[in-house]
Amino acid sequence: MTTQSSPARRGLFAYWTAMPLWKQIFIALTLGLVVGVALNQTGNAALAASIKPVGDLFVRAIRMLIVPLIFVSLVCGVASLQDLAAMGRLSAKTLILYMVTTAAAISIGLALAVVFQPGVGIDLGAAKSVTPKEAPSITQTLLELVPTNPVEAFATANVLQIIVFAILFGLSIVLAGDAAKPVKRFFDSAADVMYKLTSIVISFAPYGVFALMAWVAGTYGLELLAPLAKIIALVYAGCILHAVAVYGGLLRFVARLNPLRYFQGSIEPVMVAFTSTSSAGTLPVTMMSAERNLGVSRGVSSFVLPLGATVNMDGTALYQGVCAVFIAQAYGLDLDSSQYLTIVLTATLASIGTAGVPGAGLIMLSLVLASVGLPLEGIAIIAGIDRILDMARTALNVAGDCAVACVVARSEGELDQRVYDTPHVLKADELLAARDGVPDGDLAEPARGSA
After folding, report:
1. CA-to-CA distance for 207 and 238, rounded, in angstroms?
2. In a domain, 6, yes or no
3. Residue closest to 48 by CA, chosen among 60, 59, 26, 33
4. Alpha carbons 372 and 366: distance in angstroms, whole number
5. On the CB side of 359, how many CA atoms lie within 13 Å of its CA?
6. Phi, psi torsion values for 20, nearest 5 degrees
7. In a domain, 5, yes or no
8. Total count of domains within the chain
9. Where residue 145 sits, what CATH number does that domain have?
10. Is 451 exposed, middle or buried (0-12, 13-18, 19+ CB in 10 A)?
């Protein structure tokens, strides 16, 4: 019996490991949803909670990579840009695209909420009071970008300060010239080591996704979704519309690229973001997929994606627009055109300041509500479904990072057209393979200037 079943088990394992990673994640996500709902309906929500530590372990492993990966990859990315004018051009393009897509996202959210009126018929009279977070001044925000102690910034995972320090460090390597070549070689080697470690961690994504999805479905079940199905549907529909219309439009008409290949190449980080609800935590997956699936050069991905994980929060902006109008409608309040404009500006700025971690968007929503005088008590009912909404908005955040990286890389001649046009997705065995020496260049760094 053992002799007969062992080859079958080996065959099943080989089939599973040879499967593209996005398929593994999709299967794990679906199974987790089914198992979670079944546990919730049978009164075994505690069992679903007992599965969660597996997902937490995966998320902790991903977060373990964030600080060293951001610093090392960003230093390498900036140091590889020998032309400082190119550095300024890259920064300007990236920030403009992030701001434009964020403004478009909040506009879509407001429009959907005004048309479909998700707050009509919702009673928020019993909502609890929520204390808003005081918005820092522009001067204070700019001052806090520069770390007084880089070690403290690393220890507290202050991503914005790490990014600023990494950019300055990389610029110093460029300006130091030949004397800094040993330092540059060290960081290039360190980046290869970090990418290898990232490959190992990401290969466990399906198991972490299954555990997290089972916990979400097992904890919330279907009952919580029914009364607020309309607002959930609007946020999800808005995210899909934004991805197709805005990202697809940018790629098709600005970058002259096939949007379908972008959606296929970015499916892995989007799925990880959907279940982990952390755009910063998904960054290692995003960087690997952008380089290997979409042909974005390491120099561009190392700069655009870490910055996007911090300042590009399109999903958060869209969510804030829908929720602000939802709360206004639920309280029977009418918003005028100046208030809508205030929501657009505040949500755009608030999304830039939102940390790429689970649940941060709910805190920033209080700033948007306070800016137009809406009752902050409305946040209480949003909090009940925030995890469900967080999944969609985080997925959109990460999708936006990939889209902007492709557009910027294309405009800079740093996108490998052959890699982009090839329907290639990461496989589990490829994730564990070395980056160099792989036939056909599938895993090699995308060539520059081939666009």
Report:
1. 29
2. no
3. 33
4. 10
5. 2
6. -55, 145
7. no
8. 1
9. 1.10.3860.10
10. buried
Token couple for 23: 């398929």
What is the reported pTM?
0.66
Indicate whether 446 belongs to any domain: no
Q: What are phi and psi of 148, to 5 degrees?
A: -80, -25
Q: pLDDT tens per residue, the chain (451 residues)?
A: 444 555 556 677 777 777 777 678 778 878 888 888 888 888 777 887 888 888 888 878 877 877 887 788 778 777 776 666 667 788 888 888 988 998 899 899 999 988 988 877 665 544 444 444 455 566 776 787 788 898 998 888 776 688 788 888 988 888 888 888 899 899 888 888 887 887 788 788 788 888 887 887 787 676 555 556 788 899 999 999 999 999 999 999 999 999 999 999 999 899 888 887 777 778 888 988 898 899 998 888 888 888 788 778 898 889 888 888 888 887 778 887 878 887 887 777 655 545 444 445 665 676 677 767 777 666 656 765 777 788 898 899 999 999 999 999 999 888 999 989 887 654 444 444 433 333 333 333 433 333 3
> 259 in a domain, yes or no?
yes
Domain that holds residue 232: 18-441
Distances (CA, A) of 313 to 192, 308, 348, 392: 28, 8, 8, 12
